[in-house]
Give the backbone structure.
Amino acid sequence: MVRDLRYMQIAADLRRLIADGEIPPGRLLPSEFDLAREHHASRATIRRALAQLKDDGIVDSRQGFGWYVVAMPLRQSLRDLTTIERQIRAAGREPSREIVHFEFTPTPSALTEVLTTESVLEITRIDRIDGQPFATATVWVRSDYAQGLSPRTLEHRALSEQLGVELAGAIERITAIGAGRRDAERLRVPKGAPLLRVERTTWDTDGRRILRSEALYNPLLTELVAELPPAAHDNEPGVRLIRQPTGA
């Protein structure tokens, strides 16, 4: 009976912390080992407490992350050339971004054929919702389109609103990647945790490719949504298999 009361008490303590906002939606819980040490309980008791919260739809677990507080995911439409911030504000929440790198630099060799320019503005930012990071992105903009930009203006207005050109289209590649040390720190996730990687090349109305971006999303907080025209419902949308090496 005492053991039953103990796991229920721990579940109630965690439920209170979550309800009070001390552990916000999408935030990782301490590990089972740390929770057991903090509450002077066995890991079996901690698992029973977490299982109860999971049954109540309050927490869940995912490979590579551990236990986390369930959140209503942000939905990023893959057909929208602007940022996710408009959708965040429509949900009554507050978006923000921090510019952590801003530099005019020679075009990286991997992008010379894509952007066909000798120099680019390289920008790295962290995107947050209600102060919690959900994505980090690096953008390379042709330098002839980037004059007049500054870290301050980019923290308060979306890049797409400051380029002075009309965006006409983009192509995206979506893959999975393990969080490296720096990205794990920026997104507050464990190193090696699976992230959604979206690589986008955007062009203007003249068909000129003006920027390349690479965004990493925390899948506990975001989901990517593709809207397909009716005629395409029987087709796989842009799926390309990765060729395995011979003998793999």
Summary: The two ends are 53 Å apart (CA to CA).
